[in-house]
Structures are given as structure tokens and as C-alpha cells.
Design brief:
680 residues, alpha+beta, seven-stranded antiparallel β-sheet, six-stranded mixed β-sheet, 12 helices
């Protein structure tokens, strides 16, 4: 991979023969786990300006109609996150000369608070071609990482690293997006308002963002009038009408509750694992081909273009004397070019077989397939491949190996039909039927559902204090715990319509194996599994602690006291906000240098002053915690550990976190970035 200095440029064709479609990745990290930024892409003409507002892409306008630009979303890394962007350079309109890749922060944060700012570019096969690291970020709240630009028939990349103290508004102004002081419907508000991006289309009133809806809601058409604009840039945008789930379910016409509605994809009759695999593969591939938004979202991260998709099942392919039959084939045509992938599916917790995947990798290399995609209940972890395959370096054609979990499939379906919307009511109904099928107890597509064979020996070893550091079984439990937490994030994010990501606190440069080995040693010593989740629009990090010694699960969140308020005022306000929270909620005062008084909500409701520090220490915030019994078995049954973690997180979010409302996060400087206090 070519490492580029600031200001340098390089032609893509000098790095690879396959650069018609590329993946640009932006990444950053934060020692405190608080860092985040929103990626944006601008298409510029020969004058260095956007042709219209439609040339500006961000998280709520993630894809171009012609498939040239598609924001693929965030992927968690060891101590931060990575945003990926798919660019189909063959589909970029001829009057677009430059593609600018940028990111912006919000809430007073700046890029100097983040570490390891870096952009990389990979070709369609996933091979990294170039990288550019930014080491001089400071007070800037928006940053241009780099740009792709035309020189004749060739595309080049330039490493820019230019920042804006004026944030998204300053960046937008430079590229021809006009800024108004206020929108028409804000004329009566105070003058100190955020800038508004002025579109060239007629002005349309803004609407509230979508809210989380019940899982059992019935599908019906409900147009959304506009698309929300990015953080810090409220403004009008003419949007396509979308179909989203209604807030209230339709009343049933059934005579009694025992009647079950007819389903497009029935699941109760499935008997064997083979039947489940065949049905699940066929159901998923058919919906991918019929609902373009859904199909593109699932495979765009794998380098697939946005084009006409066809899917096939049980295809026979020659392989020596024994032809092979992959579970599915995906073919996408764009501008006369064909992208193809083989699919290997597992359901009901069955593991992927390395020899099967190896055969498909070999077939793909010989027959010119771009990718092999594995799909199972397991969640892929960085640095821990689900299957080990051999790559023949002598082959000119390279096949990429990718993995999808059933939890990710359900997450993407939830995001589309409950929060973002799809093109028409028929597509919405298909996605709803798919989601119902995936969630059926007999489908076998329930995501990660087994803590593995090491769970019981490790739990018993902790109970008898015979588990020693360095035990490989402890590492296996840590890996299973990490898979479970990633699945919790997918499920919770799909229900809420918010980004939910695990926070991993580790020293910069720590590889995944070393990090998990250190966590396994801590498990042996302390008997606890810990995790942290960051969910958009929540006031802090949600912490989960599974204490294997006591058999208790603790979910908690730390919130900061409002600046300038009196301690008693803050305590009373908190108790009022928690009026509907469980009486057994533990409330603990946080003070400088340690922890203060604590008590249950039931005791504090009549006397909020009991939570105030008595020694004059300055109060900095509160920690709210709920405790729950931990399931013992390794599976996802009613008495299983996985079910108990899901229930603990759901109860804590619904009964505590949701009561707090949106709080502004304070930016955390590097000097303030420390490990959180131990949760016990």
C-alpha cells in the first residue's frame, strides 16, 4: 500500500488494474471512546462548485440515484470507528470533475480531540491501494481528507488534510452551497440560530426525525415529506416519498387472538437444518433482488455496484470430478460490467465449514467471481476470521471473502422499514414479511445464540477459583462476549433507528489478539465480563457488567451534572426525570476524586437531598444502575445467559435511559481522557 504525504497525488491506474469501483475508508479513534464524526461527499464541477444540492451526500442522503456514491456506514474498530464510502467511478456524470471526501463534528467538538485520523482507498477486490494519515488536526470541526479528480480519462487521488474551524457551514460555503441566516419558518426565533443550507429547489418545511416503533406494527404507506439535513445544517431538501411503518398497528378483523395472519414466507413447517438453509437463502435472495434499497445496502460494503441485481439458488458449478453447489449466486450489472458473488449459508447456529468455503474461493478465482459471501448466525470479529482459507497468490484474479450475520440482515431491514423508508408499499411489505420470517422461532436465523463450549468450564473455574490466567478457554469466552455485544448493538440500533456501537478501550496500536488476551486475564482475575455501548442521542455510555461470581448483571450509565446548577437542583431534576423508572434503580453521586453517596430511587424520591455529598466535595454527575439475575446456560433459551443480557439492556434503556431525554455531550479533551471508574 502506498503511504501518501500531505498534498501529494497519484493516478489510480498506476496502483491497480481494477479501479472502476473503489472503497474509501475514513477512520479515527479516541482514548475515551467519545469521538465521532459524520462523513460527507461532494461532487464538484469544473468550477469547483456543486451542480445542485443533490451533489451533497451525508448520513441522511447516503446514495446517489445513479449509484456513483453510496455511504456504507460505520464499522467498529478496536478503539474507534471506520466509515466506508463506495464510489463507482464509471457511473460518475461526465461533468463532475472532483469528488471531495470530508467529515464534520458537532456539539463544539473538534478533530484535535481524535487520534489516528486516516483515509485509505481500496479497489473493488478490497485490496488497499493507498493511505494518508493526518497528524496536525487541531481546533477544526470539519476536515477534507482527500479528493478524487479527473485528468483526461484517468482518476487521481490527492491527499489534502485541510480543516475548517467554521465546521460544516464553512466547508459547504466553499463549494457553492449558499448559507442563509435563518429559514422562513424561523423568523420569529432569536437571531442566534444555526446556519441553513439553501437548496435550489422550492423551500419545504422540516419534519421531526423518525421515532422507534413497535416491532409488531403492521405495514402501510406513510409518505415522509422531506429528508433531514445533516447535524449543524438544518435546511430544506426536496425528497422522494418513502413508505415507513405507521406508529399504531391496524386493528385486526380476526374473530379472536388465536387466528394467525397469512404470511408470504411461512416458517412453522420447517423440520431440518437443510430445509431451514434452503428456505432462508431463497427468501433472502428473492427480497434482495426485488427491493433495490435493501439488496444494495447488504452488498455495497463488499464492493458491489448499484445496478440491476439478479439472484439464484442451488447453482451447480464444475469443480474437478465433483461439481459444487453453493447456496446462492448474486449477479449485479452496472454500465455493462458484471459483479458476481457466491453465497454460503448456515442457519440454526451451525458453523461454517472451511473446506466448503475453500472450494468456493477456488471456484470463484477460476471463474472470475469478485467475492464469496458467508452468512451465518455468527458475528465476525476483527482479527478472528470465522474460517481460514488459503489464497493462491499466483492467481491474477483475486476473490474477496466477506461475512454477513443474520443479525446484520435483520438490522438493515429494520432500519429501512421502521426508520428510513423504502420506495413503495409493495417493497415495504416484502421487507416486513422478511423480518417476520427472520424473527420466527423456527427460521434458524436468530443471530449469535451460543456462548460456546468454553462457557461452562470457565464459569465453573471462576466459581471454584481454579481458572488461571493464560487459559485459552477464557479467550474463547471473551470472543463470544464481544460477538454478543456487537449483536446487541445491531438489534438495539435497528429498534431505535440510532447508531449503536461498542466502545473498546485499549492502547493505541494494540492488536485484537493481544487486547482479547488481556481481557481474558482480567476475566480470570476478577470474574467479570464488561462492555460499553455508545448510542446516539443518549447522555452517556451504557455500561454492562456480567459478574460470574455473583451471577448478577449490572447495566449502568453515567450522566454529567448541568454546568452552573446547584447540586440540590440537579438532584431534584434527575429524580423528576426518573418518575417512571423502577424503584430499585440505584443512584450514585459522582464527585471529584471518587464516588459519593448512593441509594435506591425508592428511598430518594421523598428526600433527593440524601444523594448530595456531605463533605463539601464538588459533585460532577450521577451513575444510574440496575441489577438483574444472570442466566446460567450458554444458549439463548429462557434461562440462558444471552437472553438475560438482552432483557437487561432492553429494560435499562426503556425504563431509565429513555426517561432522561437528549442531553448535550461535552467534548472530552485529551488531557481529560481517562479510563472510567470501575463498575462493581
Amino acid at each position: 500500500m502506498l503511504e501518501m504525504p500531505k498534498g501529494s497525488n497519484v493516478g489510480l491506474t498506476t496502483l491497480s488494474d481494477d479501479t472502476g469501483s473503489v472503497i474509501v475508508s475514513l477512520r479515527w479513534s479516541s482514548a475515551a471512546g467519545d469521538g465521532d464524526a459524520d462523513v460527507s461527499v461532494l461532487l464538484l464541477d469544473a468550477n469547483g462548485k456543486v451542480r445542485s444540492d443533490d451533489d451533497f451526500f451525508f448520513y441522511n442522503n447516503p446514495a446517489a440515484a445513479d449509484g456513483s456514491v453510496q455511504l456504507l456506514g460505520k464499522t467498529p474498530t478496536d478503539n474507534g470507528s471506520e466509515d466506508r464510502i463506495s464510489l463507482d467511478l464509471t457511473a460518475v456524470p461526465p461533468n463532475v470533475e472532483r469528488i471531495v471526501v470530508a467529515a464534520s463534528q458537532y456539539g463544539g467538538s473538534c478533530f484535535g480531540e481524535l487520534d489516528d485520523l486516516r483515509v485509505t482507498l481500496a479497489d473493488r477486490s478490497g485490496e488497499a491501494l493507498l493511505g494518508f494519515s493526518i497528524a496536525d488536526a487541531g481546533v477544526e470541526s470539519a476536515f477534507i481528507f482527500g479528493e478524487l479528480y479527473r485528468r483526461g480519462e484517468e482518476w487521481k487521488f490527492r491527499a489534502i488534510g485541510q480543516g475548517y474551524e467554521t465546521g460544516l457551514a464553512g466547508l459547504a460555503t466553499d463549494f457553492g452551497i449558499d448559507i442563509d441566516d435563518a429559514s422562513d419558518d424561523e423568523a420569529a426565533e432569536p437571531a442566534e440560530v444555526e446556519p441553513v443550507l439553501k437548496a435550489e429547489e422550492p423551500r419545504t418545511p422540516a419534519v421531526e426525525p423518525p421515532v422507534a416503533l413497535p416491532a409488531q406494527a403492521v405495514r402501510e404507506a406513510q409518505p415522509a415529506d422531506v429528508k433531514p439535513t445533516p447535524t449543524g445544517a438544518r435546511g430544506p431538501r426536496t425528497a422522494k416519498k418513502k413508505v415507513t411503518l405507521p406508529k399504531v398497528a391496524k386493528k385486526s378483523l380476526a374473530e379472536n387472538d388465536s387466528w394467525k395472519p397469512a404470511r408470504l414466507f411461512p416458517a412453522p413447517s420447517l423440520k431440518s437444518d437443510k430445509e431451514r438453509e434452503l428456505r432462508a437463502t431463497s427468501v433472502l435472495l428473492s427480497v434482495m433482488a426485488e427491493v433495490p434499497e435493501f439488496g444494495r445496502r447488504l452488498i455495497a460494503a463488499f464492493g458491489a455496484p448499484a445496478g440491476r441485481m439478479q439472484t439464484f439458488t442451488e447453482v451447480t458449478l464444475p469443480h474437478g470430478e465433483n461439481p459444487k453447489r453453493p447456496d446462492g449466486v448474486i449477479r449485479v450489472e452496472r454500465a455493462g460490467k458484471l459483479w458476481t458473488a457466491l453465497l454460503e449459508t448456515k442457519t440454526n447456529g451451525n458453523p461454517l465449514k472451511p473446506d466448503q468455503v475453500q472450494n468456493y474461493m477456488d471456484i470463484g478465482a477460476r471463474r472470475g467471481y469478485e467475492a464469496v459471501i458467508t452468512l451465518s448466525n455468527d458475528v465476525a470479529l476483527e482479527g478472528s476470521p470465522l474460517v481460514d482459507v488459503r489464497i493462491d497468490g499466483r492467481r491474477k484474479h483475486k476473490v474477496a471473502l466477506w461475512h454477513l450475520s443474520w443479525a446484520e440482515v435483520a438490522h438493515q431491514a429494520q432500519m429501512l422499514i421502521r426508520h428510513e423508508g423504502v420506495g413503495n408499499a409493495a417493497h415495504a411489505w416484502l421487507l416486513q414479511e422478511l423480518l417476520h420470517y427472520l424473527q420466527h422461532e423456527n427460521s434458524g436465523c436468530h443471530g449469535f445464540q451460543n456462548m460456546g463450549p468454553a462457557w461452562v468450564p470457565v464459569r465453573n473455574g471462576i466459581d471454584t477459583e481454579t481458572l488461571c490466567q493464560g487459559d485459552r478457554r477464557a479467550v474463547e469466552v471473551v470472543e463470544s462476549w464481544e460477538q454478543l455485544i456487537r449483536q446487541v448493538c445491531l438489534r438495539l440500533g435497528g429498534e431505535l433507528g440510532q447508531k449503536a456501537l461498542p466502545v473498546q478501550r485499549a492502547k493505541r496500536g494494540t492488536d485484537p489478539h493481544s487486547r482479547r488476551a488481556a481481557l481474558a486475564d482480567r476475566l480470570c482475575e476478577e470474574g467479570r465480563l464488561t462492555a460499553e455501548l455508545r448510542i446516539d442521542s443518549t447522555p452517556g455510555v451504557l455500561a454492562i457488567v456480567a459478574d460470574l461470581r455473583t451471577g448478577k448483571l449490572r447495566t449502568s450509565i453515567e450522566i454529567q451534572a448541568p454546568e452552573g446548577s446547584y447540586p440540590l437542583t440537579s438532584a431534584k431534576r434527575l429524580i423528576r426525570l426518573l418518575a417512571e423508572a423502577p424503584a430499585d434503580l440505584h443512584v450514585e453521586t459522582l464527585v471529584e476524586g471518587g464516588n459519593g453517596p448512593r441509594g435506591t430511587l425508592e428511598r430518594l424520591r421523598p428526600e433527593p437531598a440524601d444523594i448530595l455529598p456531605k463533605d463539601g466535595a464538588r459533585m460532577t454527575g450521577f451513575r444510574l444502575s440496575l441489577f438483574k439475575g444472570m442466566g446460567a446456560t450458554r444458549g439463548s433459551a429462557e434461562s440462558g445467559f444471552i437472553r438475560s443480557v438482552d432483557e437487561a439492556v432492553d429494560r435499562f434503556y426503556a425504563s431509565v435511559v429513555a426517561q432522561l431525554g437528549p442531553f448535550e455531550r461535552r467534548p472530552v479533551s485529551r488531557s481529560q481522557s481517562t479510563e472510567p471508574a470501575a463498575v462493581g
